[in-house]
Design brief:
heterodimer, A: 218 residues, MetI-like fold, 0% strand, B: 305 residues, 12 helices, 75% helix
Chain lengths: 218, 305
């Protein structure tokens, strides 16, 4: 318990940073993922090729390596200085965007072609085919897997700890490197594992609620 | 080609698509040009930056580190498969005292981030008097996480089988273990093979987390190289990254190839079809029939793409 009560400031900072990276990383991943996903399903072959290349390349790169590129590689380019936290958010956003894109593509593919063909047959223009027929159906099947992507993103924020971003697991080194802080590495790590289990359970619960709300009635 | 999103393009749409194609090319070219401009501005293409890769020792070292990565991956893959089977069978057990603890363990293993698990094993355990090498920390953490994910995949595979399979097994006089080993698991493994291989790709990627707990693997060596003369940090990352991408792509291609094979197989077509049109909406029977008829024509092509 001392590991918690003695370092309340650090825990607040750690959890805050984890949520910060999670939130902005998720936002970036969603925006970038929608763009890439749209490219992946577009009628333009070049855009499809670019989307496919991006997804295949980033998906087959370890997240640690993506972080490596962003955090260590960026400084080599002599661009305006960015803090490690911002670079970490960029890295995790870039990486997760591929999963978002694939989820969206799979969701759109679950809509039977006949639905869109029927919509076009009764004369709906592209915008209405999308907003009234295709996207509402795709949305339902996208929500549960998208939550899984977000859960994976939450767990992936831990990698940032290895790149001097003060997310939760980084507490371990901060505490064991200082002489005045209480708590063994084991305690600190077990508590952070517990925080993650709790957060993941929260998201899983949310996923189940949303899934039930938008479940397709059979 | 018609799809959910667009019809066969007419003359107007063809013109618009051409403009979009040009815009895409210009945008991508602009981004690439910017990156290359920055790279050449900071002298990343200078021979001195790439100098380290002319030494044989560097390449032998890369080979050794690659071996370390593969060593961790191979053992973690085998162990996680084994753990996956144990946990899956445990979760499918009829006995509550087996099922409930196994379920709890699986859920906890799945919820703890792999890196936290690795750090627990590497930094945490010494406090309890058990010291663990980074290699074992990497292997055991990957085993726990991927094992529990594989267990879920296998369980889903078994549960997706028609009830008749199990009942027929009992009817011909097999015991519980016989039904599981001879009837349910082989079919579940076959149906879930793409998922299993995809999870192995994840395992391969996650070995790179070992870098953060000082396991001497490829990425660790990239960091080491970047402190060499000329500080070739991007160059080291590019070379090492290339190795990772090639390894993972090969595994991914294997997964795709296996998936293609299983899809074509008539034996298991049907029961784990992820895109059953009838299951997706509360549609009328005619719609279902129409989409089923259309599915063969249009959907197949999208699978591959």
């Amino acid at each position: 318990m001392d590991a918690i009560t003695g370092n309340l400031d650090l825990w607040a900072e750690g959890i805050g940073n984890t949520l910060l990276v999670f939130f902005f990383g998720g936002l970036l991943a969603l925006v970038l993922g929608i763009v890439i996903g749209a490219m992946r399903v577009s009628p333009v072959p070049i855009a499809r090729a670019v989307g496919t290349l991006y997804v295949n390349l980033i998906r087959n790169t370890p997240l640690t390596l993506v972080f490596f590129f962003f955090v260590f590689g960026y400084s080599a380019l002599a661009l305006p200085n960015l803090s490690n936290t911002v670079l970490g958010i960029l890295a995790i956003g870039t990486y997760t965007a591929t999963y978002v894109a694939e989820t969206l593509r799979a969701g759109i593919n679950t809509v039977p072609v006949g639905q869109a063909e029927a919509a076009r047959a009764i004369g709906l223009p592209f915008g209405q085919v999308m907003t009234k027929v295709v996207l509402p159906q795709a949305f339902r099947s996208v929500v549960p897997p998208m939550m899984s992507v977000l859960i994976a993103l939450l767990k992936n924020t831990t990698v940032a700890a290895g790149f001097s971003i003060a997310v939760l697991p980084a507490l371990q080194s901060t505490i064991s490197n200082s002489h005045t802080r209480t708590g063994t590495p084991m305690e600190v790590l077990l508590w952070s594992a517990l925080v993650f289990v709790a957060l993941v359970m929260l998201l899983t619960w949310l996923q189940r609620v949303l899934e039930n709300r938008w479940r397709i009635a059979r | 080609m018609s799809s959910v999103l667009y019809d066969v393009p007419g003359p107007k749409a063809i013109a618009r698509n051409r403009i979009l194609a040009i815009v895409t090319i210009v945008l991508v070219a602009a981004v690439l040009a910017f990156v290359i401009w920055r790279l050449s501005l900071t002298g990343q293409f200078n021979a001195s930056k790439w100098n380290v890769f002319t030494y044989t020792t560097v390449w032998t070292q890369i080979g050794l580190m690659l071996l370390n990565t593969l060593k961790a991956f191979a053992l973690a893959a085998v162990l996680s498969l084994a753990l996956g089977f144990v946990l899956a069978i445990g979760r499918l057990s009829d006995h509550r005292w087996v099922r409930i603890p196994v379920t709890v363990v699986t859920e906890i293993f799945r919820a703890i981030p792999v890196l936290v698990f690795m750090m627990l094993l590497y930094y945490g355990l010494p406090a309890l008097g058990v010291s663990m090498s980074p290699y074992w920390a990497v292997v055991l953490a990957l085993m726990a996480y991927n094992g529990s994910v594989l267990a879920e995949a296998l369980r889903a595979g078994v549960e997706s089988l028609p009830r008749g399979q199990k009942e027929a097994g009992y009817a011909v006089g097999l015991r519980k273990s016989g039904v599981m080993i001879k009837i349910l698991l082989p079919q579940a493994i076959r149906a879930m093979l793409p998922v299993i291989i995809a999870q192995l790709v994840v395992t391969m990627k996650d070995t790179a987390l070992g870098f953060l707990i000082t396991y001497h693997e490829l990425l660790y060596y990239a960091k080491l190289l970047s402190s060499q003369q000329g500080r070739p940090i991007l160059q080291a990352a590019l070379v090492i990254g290339g190795i990772y991408v090639v390894m993972c792509l090969l595994l991914s291609l294997l997964a795709k190839w296996v998936e293609g094979r299983t899809h074509r197989s008539p034996k298991i077509a049907g029961h784990v079809e992820p895109r059953d049109p009838a299951a997706d909406d509360e549609s009328t029977l005619t719609e279902v029939l129409a989409t089923q008829a259309g599915a063969g024509k249009f959907d197949r092509g999208h699978h591959g793409g």
